What we know:
Distance between the termini: 44 Å
CATH architecture: 3-Layer(aba) Sandwich
Number of strands: 15
Strand order of the largest sheet: 5-6-4-3-7-1-8-14-2-15
Largest sheet: 10 strands, mixed
CATH topology: Alkaline Phosphatase, subunit A
Strand content: 5-15%
Number of helices: 14
Order of helices and strands: HHEHEHHHEHHEHEHEHEHHEEEEEEEEH
Number of domains: 1
Low-confidence stretches: 1-25, 89-95, 448-458
CATH superfamily: Alkaline Phosphatase, subunit A
Amino acid sequence: MKLKLTTIAVAAVLSASTAMVSHASQDSFPAPASDRNTWFAAGKAAVLKNIALKPIVGPAKNVILFIGDGMGISTVTAARILAGQQPGIIDASNTTPGSSGEENSLSFEMFPYLALSKTYSANQQTPDSAPTMTAMVTGVKTLDGVLSVDQGVTRADCATNLKTHKLKTILEQAEIAGKSTGLVSTARITHATPAANYAHTPERDWESDANQPAGCAVPDIARQLIEFPYGNGIEVALGGGREYFRNTTQADPEDAGKFGKRNDGRDLTAEWVTRNGAGSAFIYKQSEFDAIDPSTTTHLLGLFERSHMEYEADRLADTAGEPSLAALTEKSIKILSNNPKGFYLHVEAGRVDHGHHAGNAYRALTDAIALSDAVKKAVDTLTAMGELENTLIIVSADHSHVFTIAGYPQRGNNILGKVINPGSTAYASADDKAPYTTLTYANGRGYHTGVKGDDVYGTPIQIGRFADMTAVDTTDADFHQEAAVPLSAETHAGEDVAIYARGPGAHLFQGTMEQNAIYHVMNRKMSK
């Protein structure tokens, strides 16, 4: 699943003319007609809508926690604009097709309640996904790199006493209460964000026994998913990470030349079916997913890739086919809704984070738009079932990225393009007399070349700043935005992220909150 990159001849770029030229049609989109009365009326209508808002104060039968991994506020803004400017990407989230983009809204931006989440961990200003998701699902902040254990542990210590340091998760509490539970992710289902719901470990990288020191007493993460001890077990788990569940003698069903990672000889996919009995299934491809009947399925494990699932931009080219995040969400809700006591579901757009780490804004943003589609699908599905007002839906992020929207581009300027100032038809120039893009990163691989690529980040494509990007199509899906500081991978950022909410208890999200407060809202409303 290597991220494909555009091959750009640096010499050709450096030799391109630095003269300012009129922008091509791909660089801008028409701004809708508006005047002082239109702006004034729209602002007044927004306030009147909020005046009429009444909170839902009763219990939440169902809880859905959507996480855009790495989906900071700048990512939401850029994704909103991209969806509005290019409605053909993912139509469902675009509320203003054919617009200039800025006035568009992603589906969850229409939710009535909003707060900010402080994402620092117990030991770092800028966190990773392990302690941030742990905070959201246990109510306790902890150390970077550990999952649903407290900060008294030592990272990667196989002698960790889980009974002493274990933190009870909202998913475990839901199962104990008799509710159904589900996990959906476009990353590996054993990756930090989904794993924090069910796994307790001092090392997020212990996804299979092959990742652990020999004889380690702490069960690996894939094993903890299969051996989940509460209630009826996790009913739905859909995502990537197939190789962590299958052993080294098993050829992969989608790629016969590859094998599983497990050294213990176990086939956890088969154990899932045996453990859960009639009504359970393991699937790995689109046709099997399509054949699943939610009314008769009690337990579903779907692992659609050996590692992470494809980016949304590449999904349709997958060999065996992969369902969209919206489709995974819809089917999960229908299966979990068979339980009259309700459900807890976590849905992660995991590859927003990976696109940013690669410095590839297009893939990060299209995956954020896919999350918006999934949220809309959830709302539509619950509405059709008559369950929307019984469901607390939360959309947030675990952390942000060093991703910026800058310059002074005119309204309707292509968010992926080069800056064109209002009233101009020429690219704006930096102090080096060359054009520059609206989207950039503070650090990452968009700075230099000569670093060996890998399956996640690929090979960087430029040396320092382009002397002239006039001839470079920065709107290409494979373009990697420039970065100010050279790093092998772009990093997370430490600023607050947003929390969007609707349903019972959503009004409890107000102001600037500690990230672990998300758990306490879910727990308060789900346990009533």
